[in-house]
Amino acid sequence: EAGVAQSPRYKIIEKRQSVAFWCNPISGHATLYWYQQILGQGPKLLIQFQNNGVVDDSQLPKDRFSAERLKGVDSTLKIQPAKLEDSAVYLCASSFLSSYNSPLHFGNGTRLTVT
Amino acid sequence: DAKTTQPTSMDCAEGRAANLPCNHSTISGNEYVYWYRQIHSQGPQYIIHGLKNNETNEMASLIITEDRKSSTLILPHATLRDTAVYYCIVSEIHGSGNTGKLIFGQGTTLQVKP
Lengths: 115, 114
Known about the structure:
The complex is a heterodimer.
Chain A lengths: L4 E3 L2 E4 L5 E6 L6 E7 L6 E7 L2 E4 L8 E4 L6 E5 L8 E8 L9 E2 L3 E5 L1
Parallel strand pairs in A: 2-11
Antiparallel strand pairs in A: 1-3, 3-8, 4-5, 4-9, 5-6, 7-8, 9-10, 9-11
Chain B lengths: L8 E5 L4 E6 L7 E8 L6 E6 L4 E2 L4 E4 L5 E6 L8 E9 L15 E6 L1
Parallel strand pairs in B: 1-9
Antiparallel strand pairs in B: 2-7, 3-4, 3-8, 5-6, 6-7, 8-9
């Protein structure tokens, strides 16, 4: 099966600019996650979708971050305006909702550098 | 916050078994133990998970103590390609009102040496 696709692979922007990341999950996976991974740390959950509804966005900095999952498939994560501390790898993951043995499948992420 | 404690780093000789420990003393009865690993510049990869019985798959074995307060991931014959950060996570299975989200800690950096 095809894996989780993310684009772009790398992005460099200046602070106060805007940026968007795109994720295409594995076909049939109802649950989609966005994680932020700062260098040297484990991934931190930003937001979780089930189909096109938000399940958990308690760790999402809503003053600057937004995410949507239209039609319950692809998702975009946006940062506006970016800060230096937003420099990180943004990982998208998906899972099949109701399967006991269904782990999270991660994409390879988008590395964001804010200068 | 992560509910697990792992050593920061470990070394293992190529071809030998790698035993990665994890403490999860506050684990509750409906929480599972998951292991993921992350190779440099890639996203995390699922390895194995279990509730209370020992589990084995083509990648690794998971040994969970009887009181479930700790576990060990075993890579039976480590290769250089197993060099990665290994994350031990406790979480409830997705469903029945649980979100199934995974909270990652710092993990253990395993260096497999020739």
